[in-house]
Each structure stands twice: as C-alpha cells, then as structure tokens.
Write a structure and sequence with these properties.
mainly beta; three-stranded antiparallel β-sheet; 0% helix; flat
C-alpha cells in the first residue's frame, strides 16, 4: 500500500511492521480486546465485528470506563497515546483507575 508522509522524519527513523494490530474498548461488555491477523485496510475498523479474518483476545474485563486517545505531535513535542481504564469488581463495586501514556517519536 503506497503512502506519502506529509513531512520529513525529524528523527530519521523508519518503522516497519508485518501486519496491523488494534486495541478495542467495548464499554457495553466491559472488555479491552487485542486484535491481530486481519487484512490491511485504508480505513481503520471501528466496530469489533468489522475486523474480518482477525483473531481477538480479551486483555481486560470488568471495565466500567475505557478511553484510548492519540494526541498528535508537533515540531516542539512528540505525540502521546494515553489509555485510561477503570476496572470495577462486580461483587462489591470497588474500582481502580489505571492510566498509561506512551511517548510516540516522529509524530510531528
């Protein structure tokens, strides 16, 4: 699949992957899933059912909140991907909030 980047790589790096992977938060079922083994597509599937020919594994269950955000970088700073999860015990309602942020190079 041909792709032309809008800007030059500020760090002169190139990342090569052999297949796409995705993470999917489903607040209806309270599940965070990892999807792999599906075909390349110009558009990222949104609904879990649209990942045809893929494999799905549950990474987390009992989620009462799940947010994954990508903040694009600019020349002054790199990009950030953040994942915020709230896991709730269904028996007693006790919850824990988890936050993980990933620094993404080459995202001007």
């Amino acid at each position: 699949m041909a792709h032309q980047f809008a800007l030059r790589s500020s760090e002169q790096r190139l990342y090569i992957v052999d297949s796409p992977v995705s993470f999917h938060c489903d607040e209806t079922t309270g599940t965070l899933s990892y999807i792999w083994g599906y075909d390349w597509s110009a558009n990222q599937p949104i609904a879990l059912a649209n990942f045809t020919n893929g494999n799905v594994a549950a990474l987390a269950i009992n989620l009462s909140d799940c947010t994954i955000q990508s903040v694009e970088g600019v020349f002054e700073r790199s990009g950030v991907i953040s994942m915020a999860l709230t896991v709730t015990d269904p028996d007693n309602g006790e919850s824990v909030n988890l936050l993980h942020q990933i620094h993404v190079d080459n995202v001007p």
